[in-house]
Each structure stands twice: as C-alpha cells, then as structure tokens.
Specification:
single chain; alpha+beta; Glutaredoxin; four-stranded mixed β-sheet; about 30% strand
C-alpha cells in the first residue's frame, strides 16, 4: 500500500492543506484507489517556506495546491 502524508502544520494549514487533502480524497474515490493508497495528515515535513508539502512513500513534494494536486496525482499515483 502506498502512503500519502500531507503536512497540516501551521504554514501548510494556512496555505490550504485541508483543501489539498479533500481533493486527494476525491481523486482516490474517483479512481477507486481508497484501498490501495493510505492518506494521512502529519505535522511539519520541514518545507514550511514552500507551500503545502506532502510525503509520498517517503519522498517529499512541495508547492501543492488544490489546483495543481490533480497533475501531481496523475503523474505520481496513476502512472506508477
């Protein structure tokens, strides 16, 4: 099972972390991947200056938004 951990620390929270989480949930449901990808909230991935951050299977990605998370999802979740 793959794991996505979205930072919900102060900076990421203010930059839309929960909007990103909700969009990921929607995409997981839409693509029937709820049982294959675990989605979690976490605190501080150390990239506070770079917008919403997430960890996917240990790799950190930054500057995520509700608007661009679909591209991320297509590139890193659907194509792997």
């Amino acid at each position: 099972m793959r794991t996505i951990s979205v930072c919900v620390g102060s900076s990421c929270h203010l930059m839309g972390a929960y909007e990103v989480i909700n969009e990921i949930k929607r995409l997981l449901n839409e693509n029937n991947l709820k049982d294959q990808v675990e989605l979690k909230a976490c605190f501080c991935l150390g990239e506070c200056q770079s917008g919403v951050s997430l960890s996917l299977d240990g790799a950190i990605y930054t500057s995520l938004t509700k608007e661009n998370i679909g591209d991320f999802f297509n590139k890193y979740i659907l194509k792997e």
